[in-house]
Amino acid sequence: MAVLMVVAGGVWAVTSLDDGKGAAATKKASPSAESAPAGAAYPYGEDVGLKKTLRAGDCVHAVWTGAAFASRPELGVVSCAHDVPDGQVMAVDTASDFADARDHGGERCAGKVNGVAGSLADAGVYALTPTEAGFRAAGSGTACLVLGRHVPIGGEIGRFRNTGSNVWTTEMSVGDCWLYVAHKTYFTANLTDCADQHTDQVIGFVTAPRTMAFEEALRQGNKLCRDKFESTWGPGAGRSVFGYLSDETNWKAGFDSVVCTVGRADRSRTSGAISSSGTTA
User: Fold this and answer.
1) Taking the model in full, what pTM does it have?
2) 170 contacts 151 by C-beta, under 8 angstroms
3) DSSP string covering 217-259
C-alpha cells in the first residue's frame, strides 16, 4: 500500500506496505475450569473481539463501534511493518483488582503515554480495560493505546522505532531527526539519532485553516510553518523551517496538520539537535 507525503514542489511516496470419573462415579470439573469465569475467553469483552492479551509494542487495527475514543473499539492485532496500523500499545498498566483497573486504569494510562500522543500531529490515548470476567485472563492489565484520530498512524511510534526506519508524517514526533533521501520520483525520510547526520528535525505542527484546500496547503505549507516557528528556530540565514503534508486522501479524512521541521537552508546535512533558541545542543 503506498502512502504519499507531500512537500511543496514534490511528492513523498512511502511504501509500507492475525471425562474422568471419581470414586463415586461423578463428574467433577477441574480446578482450572472452576476458576475460569464465563467470558474469560475474551479478556476485554466479546465486543472488542480479542482472545489474546495485548502486549506493549503490539500494533492494532481499530474500528470504533460509536464515536472515536468515546466507544469501545473492535480491535485486531496486525503487523507493524507490513500492515497500516491505526495505532500501537505503548504500555500496559497492571491493576491490583478489577475495581482498580476500572476506576484508575485509564488515568494511569494517560500518565504513561500522553507524552507520546502529544508529540504526534493527530493522535489520542485510549485505555482498554479488561472486563471483570476477563481480568485474570488479561494479566490484570489495561492496555494503553495511542491511536490516530482521523487516519491510521501507519507504523511503529515512540521507543519502538529503530534508527534507519522509514517514517512518514503520521508517525513523526516532535524531536525526531531524519535524513532526506532522494529517489528518482520521490524521497523518503530515514529516522536518525539527532547526534548523527540528518537534514530535518521535527519541531512541531500547524493545523491548516479549515477553508484551505489541499492544493493551497501544498503551496502554503512552508509559510504556515515559518510563520509559527522561524523566528525562534531559524532566525539566521543558515537555517530555515520547512512544512510537510500527508497525501490528499489523508487530508480529506481529516489529517490537516502540516509537520514542521528545521534544517539548513541549503538542505545540506547537519548533526546535533537544535534547541528552540536556534542553538545546537
Assistant:
1) 0.84
2) yes
3) HHHHHHHHHHHHHHHHH--STTEEEEEEEE-HHHHHHT--EEE
Judged by phi (left if over 0) then psi (alpha if -120 to 50, else beta), residue 82 lies in: alpha
Instruction: Compute CA distances 150 → 63, 87, 220, 225, whole Å.
Output: 12, 11, 22, 21
Give the cell for residue 79: 503487523
- The answer to whether the beta carbons of residues 73 and 63 sit under 8 Å apart is yes
d(CA 154, CA 115): 19
Q: List, for residues 154-206, the tens digit of each pLDDT value.
A: 999 999 999 999 999 999 999 999 999 988 878 899 999 999 999 999 999 99
Residue type, 72: R
How far is Cα 273 from Cα 48, in angstroms, rounded to an integer?
A: 42
Q: Which amino acid, 102? A: R
Q: Which residue has the cell 534547541?
A: 275
Rg (CA), the chain: 23
